[in-house]
Amino acid sequence: MEGFIVDREYKSSLKCLRIGDKIAELPIIQGGMGVGVSRSSLAGAVAAEGGVGVISTAQIGYDEEGFEKDPAACNLRAIRRHILKAREIAKGRGLIGVNVMAALKHYKEHIHEAVAAGADLIISGAGLPVNLPELVPETCRTKIAPIVSSKRAAQLILKMWAHRYNRTADLIVIEGPEAGGHLGFSREQLDHRADLDFDQEIRDIISCKKEYEEKFSREIPVVVAGGIFDRSDIDHVLSLGADGVQIASRFVATEECDADERYKQAYIDAREEDIQIVQSPVGMPGRAVRNHFVETVEAGRIPVKKCYHCLEKCNPGQVPYCITNALIQAVNGDVENGLIFCGSNTGRIREITTVSALMRELAEG
User: Fold this and answer.
1) Which range marks the domain in which residue 22 is found?
2) Is residue 39 within 8 Å of 54, Cβ to Cβ?
3) Does 338 fall in a domain?
4) Residues 48 and 107 in one domain
5) Strands 285-289, 244-247: parallel, antiparallel or unpaired by DSSP?
6) How far is Cα 36 from Cα 257, in angstroms, rounded to an integer?
7) 205, part of any domain
8) How far apart are CA 268 and CA 350, in angstroms?
9) What is an example of a GO molecular function annotated in this UniProt entry (predicted)?
10) pTM of the model
11) DSSP three-state, residue 91
12) Which tens digits make up the pLDDT trace of 268-321?
């Protein structure tokens, strides 16, 4: 399966992505984006093209009846509903993954629900998912993948999983400093990211995982995320030894993306100078579109009127704003009063396309 021809009549020289006994025809993972930006419509469409479609569980049930009273229960219902709906859309093609932030208060419950609903892959970041193997038995069909941004983090998680659980990763996602949303870098590193030799970091992570491939007699594929925009970017990271890529921002500007049309238009309208680093209540810096909301937060704290109990470590009386409310406002189309996470290359996006056309562009080059 060095290359393949799909029923949508386009051809790719890209190799397939093997994750244990699971195979995606294209080595392209659509990154998980919450709240509500990547749910079943987007993930199912990406899988239908032979890639890995990823659903974000972060407050995924925001539009479920009863969310204001019991967000935790609504999120669990929505996880199952969207995984099953994505499978229907995919019609047996590709893989369906789920992104679960390690910083979530109900992390364990989200993992269990995704596994029970038959997710092919759990991708976990926004903190180190130290106990992920405990929550996803090796005997089940679901594969596990940590997100790391440094060799140090990769070594730590692989060593810990091997020691505690006699287990290793099925896939590693390396997320660089050009990514959108929450970032695994300090503010200082991001302000001077041109000085970072991230290509070497990628090589170092690929090198360090070889010890665990030998120990567990299996391949651990690596995909690179952050700043991947076109086929030349894909070819570059593959030349470094990666097995695939994870792309998020470009999938926002598609007809199938689950976000409001005004959210998508905000991506189209954004220019390079409109994208900046913000501070998230998660405790990590993030990258977002500068708008009225960001300017308001810079001017002073926005008091939290209601807590949705989304983050494990969150003090509503101290955080600069409620991230749940900010992200829901944005995904529902209030693009001036909500938080719009995005990648560094969002300013290069100029039009709304379809998932099929975008996957074809990425596959063919």
Assistant:
1) 4-260+349-364
2) no
3) no
4) yes
5) unpaired
6) 9
7) yes
8) 5
9) nitronate monooxygenase activity
10) 0.95
11) coil
12) 999 999 999 998 887 789 999 999 999 999 999 999 999 898 888 888 888 999
